[in-house]
């Protein structure tokens, strides 16, 4: 009896927009800014010894700097996406990485989302909702034109598919 051949899954081919790094850096900075402000305010109030505030401030600055300066480049190296006539493929994450494949026959809706920072950078996120308990598949930080073309292409492919999306 022979063993089944190993199945290899190629990584998705396309990256998000290069401006994704700026998006992720700005979002990280906006996360850490309130933390630093709270530490400064607590320092001014002065309930605890000065070393507590200094330590908290130092940890926040180091963690925030790494989050702003390193994580966006790491995420950009990891994030990939691709669509074919049969499926949507994504790879995302930075510390924990996730690979998702959504068969076109399971696609229920395709949406585009643009937050204020996305709009400032001309980026968009495409969300492909499927009949899956794992939730929607997101393709983040695409150039707005690429997102629009992706939505149109997915809509076209799904329209030709005989699946029931359940």
From TrEMBL:
InterPro entries the UniProt entry points to: YdbS-like_PH (IPR005182)
Domain YdbS-like PH span(s) in chain numbering: 76-147
One Pfam family cited in the UniProt record for this chain: bPH_2
UniProt cross-references to PANTHER family, sorted A to Z: TRANSMEMBRANE PROTEIN-RELATED (PTHR34473:SF3), UPF0699 TRANSMEMBRANE PROTEIN YDBS (PTHR34473)
Protein name, as recorded: YdbS-like PH domain-containing protein
Biological source species: Rhodococcus triatomae
């Amino acid at each position: 009896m022979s063993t089944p051949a190993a199945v290899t899954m190629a990584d998705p081919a396309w990256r998000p927009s290069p401006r994704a790094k700026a998006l992720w850096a700005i979002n990280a900075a906006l996360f850490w800014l309130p933390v630093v402000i709270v530490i400064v305010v607590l320092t001014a109030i002065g309930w605890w010894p000065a070393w507590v505030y200094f330590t908290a401030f130092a940890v926040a600055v180091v963690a925030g700097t790494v989050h702003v300066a390193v994580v966006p480049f790491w995420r950009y190296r990891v994030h990939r996406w691709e669509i074919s006539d049969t499926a949507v493929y994504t790879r995302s994450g930075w510390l924990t990485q996730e690979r998702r494949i959504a068969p076109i026959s399971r696609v229920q809706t395709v949406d585009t989302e643009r937050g204020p920072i996305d709009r400032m950078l001309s980026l968009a996120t495409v969300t492909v909702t499927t009949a899956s308990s794992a939730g929607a598949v997101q393709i983040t930080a695409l150039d707005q034109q690429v997102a629009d073309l992706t939505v149109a292409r997915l809509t076209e492919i799904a329209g030709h598919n005989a699946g029931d999306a359940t």
